[in-house]
Amino acid sequence: MTVLQVEDVSVALGGRTVLRDVDLSVEAGEFVGLIGPNGAGKTTLLRTVLALVRPSAGSVLVQGRRARPGAPGVGYVPQRHEFAWDFPISIEQTVMTGLVGRQGLFRRPSASDWRLVADALDRVGMAHLRTRPVGELSGGQRQRVLVARALALHPSVLLLDEPFTGLDMPTQELLSDLFTRLAGEGTAVLMTTHDLLEALARCGRLVLLNRTVVADAPPDRLRDPELWVRTFGLSERSPLLAFLTAA
Amino acid sequence: MSILEFLTDLFNPDLRFLPKALLISVMSAVVCGVVGCFVVLRGMAFIGDAVAHAVFPGLAVAFVLQGSLVLGGAVAGIITAVLVAVFSQNRRLKEDSVMGVFLVGSFALGVVIISRAPGYAGSLQQFLFGSITGIPDSDVVVVAVAAVVVLGLAFALHKEFVVVTLDREMARAMGLSVFWLDIVLYVMVTLAVVISIQTIGNILVLALLITPAATARLLTDRLGVMMTLGPLIGGLSALVGLYLSWTYDYPTGGTIVLVSTAVFLLAWTLAPRHGLVATWRSARRQPDDAGLDDGVTVVGGDRRSPALDAGR
């Protein structure tokens, strides 16, 4: 089932075209990596899916409905530095903020809200630390808290913005396991990353993006150096090309 | 002066201004303590300063026209707050520069307006440093109503303010109107500042907004506790400060601020993690989390330990 459908989307920011004719779809249960250099428009594409940016052309459909802010079905995990980690709040309260969009004014969290929070913390393996202040957590734990916040509403598509940045290899592996498992449970996972190794190893499909989609295929069908040269502007002597063609 | 004599003075009909001043000081300190929590957590102390200066032309106009100071200040403060929010949308200028322009501009406007009033030197001093005499009865009502409105808003929009403070992009993605929530918060800061200016004064009001909330932050990692401690510390500082100023004939605003500053320094010395309280707490926490503390690192650290997998 196609959960996320991006059709012919173009985005202009401040009069500059950032994305052009982007086509992309993600099925339920897929783990898709969005790869590209800085300034390629990866984050802009995620923001367009969240309806925080209005496309100048094309459409974004989530579960067949036009994307809009606060729409159910989309979970978003921003880059870790976007979050105020010095805020005095516990892990479970942080995850609870993921439900604010559907709670009304004055309303206190209900028993079913707390169940959603407990369930989300279980899925990321953080239930045992639920009362910890978020300021005390390590980078990998912080990332898992943000994932739990996004999972609280059982989204059908999960958007991950650079989840591996600044994390060591074992922690990356832990998170990759988590994302793979979430996809296995039927969530459509779309992740931007600069970590090519992790993306090649784990994602079922990679989308190479540089203002537009350069390639969209499973990792083992992206051996053509030309695609990587076009996406990243690499020189022919780049060690990455040697690695990709050798592997 | 003993506490008993202070109580006697409070009920002395010739000193009717004293209980009024006490009521207004404590109410405004409590409101500032609550609003101040978000000011401190969002790192917008400068906005508090800007608003404090921005209400000055309103006070001046109200003074010249013999109107309500609270109302005049609120109007001027809210206009400035909205201007700052609107002008900050222009990405060429950072928010603090926009505020810098408006806070000095409106303060200057206030200085010019008040210079047109006869005998302005005395009233200028009263505005800048506060005074416990000459508060009209109606102001007690206005302050009480403003306090209820601000505390009501803080309660109603608590969840939303938390989300916006944690992560603005996420708040937008959830469909919250970050722009309007900002404006409401600025208006709350303005009201808190305006009702405090009478007794504390224009210059020192920032202390009431920042110091009790900052003190509360030092003492806890729980938002609920912080938002209870902030107004408590503020209210008690106002009470003790007024008592000391009445007893020793010190300026009221200055004394209240000095008391809250002393509490802040005390909390700093005994702060969790670095002081006695911290030692006691970590000693008590050991049994619950035995073996897991290894998975916790200092803020900013990205260390991973085998304990991470403990719960999986």
UniProtKB/TrEMBL annotation, chain A:
Organism lineage: Bacteria, Bacillati, Actinomycetota, Actinomycetes, Geodermatophilales
Pfam families per the UniProt record, alphabetical: ABC_tran
NCBIfam families in UniProt: anch_rpt_ABC (TIGR03771)
Classification via InterPro entries: AAA+_ATPase, ABC_transporter-like_ATP-bd, ABC_transporter-like_CS, ABC_trspt_anch-rpt_ATP-bd, Metal_Ion_Import_ABC, P-loop_NTPase
Ranges for domain ABC transporter: 4-236
Keyword annotations: ATP-binding, Nucleotide-binding, Transport
Family classification: Belongs to the ABC transporter superfamily.
Highest taxon above the source species: Bacteria
Protein name per UniProt: Manganese/iron transport system ATP-binding protein
From TrEMBL, chain B:
Disordered: annotated segments: 291-312
GO cellular component: ATP-binding cassette (ABC) transporter complex
Keyword Transport applies: yes
Gene Ontology BP annotations: cellular response to iron ion; response to zinc ion; transmembrane transport
Keywords assigned: Membrane, Transmembrane, Transmembrane helix, Transport
Similarity-based family: Belongs to the ABC-3 integral membrane protein family.
Superkingdom assignment: Bacteria
Main location: membrane
InterPro entries given in the database record: ABC_BtuC-like, ABC_TroCD, Anch_rpt-typ_ABC_trnsprt_perm
UniProt lineage: Bacteria, Bacillati, Actinomycetota, Actinomycetes, Geodermatophilales
Transmembrane annotation, as ranges: 21-47, 59-86, 98-120, 140-157, 178-197, 203-220, 227-246, 252-271
Basic and acidic residues: compositionally biased ranges: 301-312
Subcellular location, record wording: Cell membrane; Membrane
Name of protein: Manganese/iron transport system permease protein
Membrane disposition: Multi-pass membrane protein
